[in-house]
Amino acid sequence: MKEWIEKFLQSLPNPNTAAAYRNDLAQFTEFLATFRSMAVPQVTRLSDATAKHFQEYRFFLQGRGYAETTLARKLAAVRALYRYLEAQSEAKAEVTQALGQQPVERLDPATLSEAEILDLLQAPRRASGRYPMRDTALLYLLYYTELRATTLLSLNLCDVAQGGSSLQVGGAQGTSVALAPAAQAALAPLMEELWNRHALDNQPLFQNHRGERLTRQGLWTIVKRYLPFTDIKGHLTLETLRHSGAAHRQPANQSLDLL
């Protein structure tokens, strides 16, 4: 895959376009390499991708919560690549046509079942990760607070109320978010560990191995690390956890008490 992408990028006259497409196409090839579905066969060559693969990629991008402009740019990069492959006789015309025929639509957010959520939230206890308390707290708060990943990662220790009953989002003038008992219980061991390390109030609540603020990419790496320890079959994103929490706490449903 990489060989043809490099040839395509080198054929572009604008280096800025090539740089933007490089990142977008790296995401596309990673998706093709990792996507698993009973209905859609796995591919190892770009030329083997079908209309179903492109549709699943759209679903994947939409599940990540990208803005419409970003979504359109990422799909444009894939279309441009396959037009190039068609010109080089490395892709069939119907593949390129399929890319142009599928409109960008906003889908209802994907969710996990309550059983799948339970499986994922308990995964750090089954796996041999380096930071089980941090990872457990992250997963529980993503599910129970429905906060966006970037918002959750922006929190500092001082944003956790005494006793861990709530989070202060957006600073002193922001919003207080109450925590469910299960989320409080998941957060408590992490807070104790941080205070035992004499962490400061203005330090990040969720830190990487260097003691720096965890990034969204780092969080996604953590979530993917635990997937092999679950029975989740669908395609998971950070937004899936958020939307699952909202769906499970609709009036017709009961909130899970997972601890």
Task: Explain what the structure shows.
- The protein has helices spanning about 1-10, 15-35, 50-65, 70-85, 95-100, 115-120, 125, 130-145, 150-155, 180-195, 215-225, 240-250; strands at about 165-170, 175-180.
- It is mainly α and about 260 residues long.
- A hairpin with a 5-residue loop joins strand 1 and strand 2.
- The longest helix is centred in the first third of the chain and has 20 residues, at about 15-35.
- It is elongated and about 65 Å long.
- It starts with a helix and ends in an 11-residue tail after the last helix.
Question: How is the secondary structure organized here?
Answer:
Elements: H1 2-11, H2 15-34, H3 51-63, H4 68-87, H5 93-101, H6 114-121, H7 123-126, H8 132-145, H9 149-153, E1 166-169, E2 175-178, H10 181-196, H11 216-226, H12 238-248
Antiparallel strand pairs: 1-2
